[in-house]
Amino acid sequence: MDNSVNQLNSSRRESPVSGLRRNLQKIQIAISCLYLVLVLSAWLTLQWADLWWPATLLMFSPRWVLALPLAILFPIAILLRSRSVVLLALTGVIVCWPVMGLSIPWQRLMNRTSTGKSLRVMTLNMHYSKADPKLLEDLINNAELDIVAIQEWNGHDRAALRSASGWHVHSTPKLFLASRYPIKKTAELGGESSGEHASVTHYVLDTTVGVIHVFNLHLATSRESINETIHENPEGATALRANSELRLKQSAYVAGKAAECQGPLLIVGDFNTPPESTIFAEVWSGYKDAFKSAGWGWGYTFIGAKTTVRIDHILARKGLACVKCRVGPNVGSPHRPVIAELVWTGDDGKEG
Questions:
Q1: Measured between alpha carbons, how far is 24 from 4 in angstroms, rounded to an integer?
Q2: With CB atoms 3.0 to 4.6 Å apart as the test, which of 30, 145, 252, 328 could cross-link to 337 if both were Cys?
Q3: In which domain, by residue range, is 29 found?
Q4: Maximal CA-CA distance, the chain
Q5: What is the pLDDT of residue 108?
Q6: Rounded to the nearest 5°, which phi and psi values hold at 258?
Q7: Can you tell me the distance from the alpha carbon of 90 to that of 103, in angstroms, rounded to the nearest whole number?
Q8: Are residues 137 and 87 located together in one domain of the fold?
């Protein structure tokens, strides 16, 4: 009788393989929970970007690194048939969307496409590159652009657009603008991106449907302060905070000048400020971000210095709606061009 009971209990015992799998599942779930906590902490930290220096540092960091654990944890979870698959799927959504800045133009998908006169715009920081200008010139020709705004371009004085038929050009080493429409007025509002007023020029274009205002800008870079912080310079955190304050001051200055204009308006260029920044939300919330409105993916515009981040923008206001936006190819600069197609939506564009 005792032998029969022992045999029955033995048959009910978990096999070594099943026991190992159960233990591995527990470890997998624990690691997945810790990973979710890490990702949620990063998301929460980003809410303070440009207000708290560690959050600012995270904002300018290559946040795609936070997605790498998924490549290991997800296949293991499937192999172990672990319930952590659902947890990891949720974590992946948080990493890809709010943390890494994935853009899906929901409003554009759900709403009827705006119709009207088309306006194709490109902005690019050439970073004083000495690359072959043919790459840039081919891009401009193939994209059938109406407005080209370039910052820090060594070749501005040799640009083919200066002599090309149908183009109107205003050119300085820091800021360059070419337009299919006559440039009615220009005003240089600041000459140094490290100065209080940044590097910014205001153009008034005389178009077939009225006046359009264009602000081409380059705000202060955080590159040096980030490098100091990473290399544990005692002044790094202070420099990073000072850079945030300077970019806020510069952004507010440009926004104030733009507020004086009436009619359709574009603000384009290198903001050195990702959309996750509190500065971006505070100063530019009244504008339509072309990539957020009509772009797909992460839209990283700066790829270099060990990071990838979206800091180059096309913003629109009054009478302009974005229907398409994309990040263009490498043309010899660590920045990538942002190309947007906008349409006029009825504002007469009368100048104030």
A1: 33
A2: 328
A3: 2-99
A4: 105
A5: 75
A6: -65, -35
A7: 17
A8: no
